[in-house]
Design a protein that fits this description.
The protein is an alpha/beta fold. The protein has 16 helices and 11 strands.
Length: 356
Amino acid sequence: MLKYFHAWNCVFEGLPRPFWNLLKNFSDLEYAWEKADFRDLTSKCLRGPYEENFIKLKKSGDPFRQFDDFVKNGIQTVFFRDRAYPSVLRNLNNHLPPPVLYIKGHIPTGYTYLSIVGTRSMTSYGEQVTSYLLKKLAAYKICIVSGLARGIDMTAHISAVNNGTPTVAVLGYGQYNVPFHLTGICNKIIENGAIISEYPPHLKAQKYYFPLRNRIISGISKATLVIEAGEKSGALITAKYALDQGRDVMAIPGNIYQEKSIGTNRIIGEGSASLVASFNDILDVLGIDKKDGSLAELASLNQKTVLDTLSREPLSRAQLIRQTKLSPQEINIVLTELEIENYINKNRAGNYYIIC
């Protein structure tokens, strides 16, 4: 059945409105494709270019071959009513949810989702702020959402990966059209997160796809943080979607002489975004207790690995080496650091445990 969702999504070129119109008139998509009266289809659902698309795709059978191919390539098709579909996307207020999502990797569960967006041509200040915040956020169960564009988006994804934070990239094109130079970061993202798109994997980018996909970036998140944005930045579209969807919006204030701060300063001044003056402001908006991250707020990923392992039970040095896969030298360094910083101690049996 899923292959018919994909086939119709190809007919409508990934656009939600005509797809939802189809579902309003035909609840059985296989019947609509295979047996429905053509005149009935065209009069209700296939106006404009969609009639030609349907005729061409039904004759060629391309959508079904494509479906088999991207299943082999680890791309999952998820329909609106599926359990795997992110439930928060089902309610976007005045905006249509994507009927179909194509997912590579897995969408993390049990995390608070925060979208981080901003200009493609960031300043050194924007880069520094993004990297700093992502390092601090790694201490908490937060998943970072962004759009895999250059600038703030890419810095957010890379910083999340480097700090062991799950991240979700929302594309404005099909998954087969990810630029080659982004292959490396995409492979790292799907190790602990996901790459998602509402557009069929073979579809190339169109200008109007990007602002439309922004409703997914904001919709899947509890809040949106705008780092840097010029007066007409696409990040402001994401912020507007977030407000429409009843999500929180935050922004980093910037230099009043800097073009890339015009948008962020404006939405703060208008009252549509909360001013972020410190890292704790983000936690307050997300409703996260600052104590939740006190143990894990560490510079070293190795420290985080050891703490996560010790959170289950006290372990000896040898057991930690086996379970964490860290080298004896790395374990020695980490254990020394954690003891000095008073995060762990050693009991009489020689096992290490977390100090509560």
